[in-house]
Amino acid sequence: MRSAETLHDTSGxxxxxxxxxxxxxxxxxxxxxxHADVFxxxxxxxxxxxxTWPDVFEFDPRVSRDHAELRINRQRQVELVPxxxxxxxxxxxPVDGPVTLADGDVLRLGSTLVVxxxxxxxxxxxxxxxxxxxxxxxxxxxxxxxxxxxxAEATVLILGESGTGKEVVARAIADDQKLxxxxxxxxxxxxxxxxxxxxxxxxxxxxxxxREGFFEAAGDGVVFLDEVGELSPTLQAKLLRVLDRREFQxxxxxxTRRFAxxxxxxxxxxxxxxxxxxxxxxxxxARLAEVVVxxxxxxxRREDVLLHAARVLPAGRRLSPDLAEAMLVAPWRFNVREVExxxxxxxxxxxxxxxxxxGPVAHRLVREDQKHPAPPAAAPAASGPPSxxxxxxxxxxxxxxxxxxxxxxxxxxxxxxxxxxKAGIKAEAYRPTDKEPSP
Length: 439
What we know:
This protein is α/β, with parallel strands linked by helices. 30% of the residues lie in helices and 19% in strands. It has four domains: 23-117, Sandwich (Tumour Suppressor Smad4); 137-294, 3-Layer(aba) Sandwich (Rossmann fold); 312-367, no CATH class; 388-430. The chain has helices at 17-20, 54-57, 137-149, 166-174, 192-197, 214-218, 233-245, 271-276, 282-288, 305-311, 321-329, 335-350, 368-371, 388-397, 402-409, 413-423, and strands at 5-8, 24-30, 33-40, 45-48, 68-72, 78-82, 88-90, 93-95, 99-101, 106-109, 112-117, 156-159, 179-183, 222-226, 247-248, 257-258, 262-267, 291-294, 318-319, 355-356. A six-stranded parallel sheet has the order 1-18-12-17-14-13. It has a six-stranded antiparallel sheet with strand order 3-2-11-10-7-8, with helices on one face. Strand 15 and strand 16 form a beta hairpin. The N and C termini lie far apart (70 Å).
């Protein structure tokens, strides 16, 4: 028996240091447009601003020439350092000082969103598989691996969380071969053997004619066993016979029939743990896992989230920056399928709106750390005005936007203007400027 080969396994050992530490930024969004431009991060400091992507940031008046910096510290970690007076969001939260970044962190500069990647999987190439979109190195490695498997004879076990597209991968591997898909979780125990292998007329009550099963219907094509971890012990034994001897029997027959096709299987379970727990046969797992294809979840390739949204976004419709940011940092427990459902709900609720807001689907995009937030700080007493220092702090935090300051204080804009006039504070002094710094 051939040993298992893993084409893409995010849980395996990390690549060598030179391949692992390869920081790069991926610009995925600005002003309603979705892109996936990449620039490598070389040297100890890299500016994030108009100097980085002049063709992008010149359209974003909130971003200056040197809005922020990326630095590599002595521990070979990437640090984000916002420029004084500039607003930068890190994973949906504003930051006003240096912060250490991790792989997949999301940065927002004005209306532009950037994903930082610091871990690179070794990629030997890519392949044109339209059904598997994505600009991440993980998806490139997946497509390249699938291309190698087309036309091969190996049995393939496809692993992936719910909604990652295991059947899409199976159909891509099958390519132009006939594929018969079987949802093992929906196969009833009493009829399972008949459904899989067929039956002879009179084999049981209701069997009024000979009928072929899924394996016979596939011919020399592909049988795809989705959620194979749900099979009962009895069916596991019968499936092992098909894999070992390439033959099966119809229910009620003594003659054997040949299976000339190929088997692909998929599951969202950890079958190794299932084997250890005695719920799945070890010999069957070994036969199914001749080649293992591991589909990366969206949380490990955040730069692909908005590209999946764009696939179902009608022409002329755009995401607001707030919505795009929330989507990039959302948990996406059900992966691509969940993105598609959220977009469908958003389009229904927003009617003919051209720019889609975050509000109608905000409840679907809540991160785990936001479900039980810390108690909010006590609001300032409504009986008296805030201190001048409080007003200055809020103006700096909101970049001189009086409307945002008023909302944060729970007061009207006119009241805030009266306080500013009385204290001699000018909101304009806290607003970003696009002027180039003097040499």
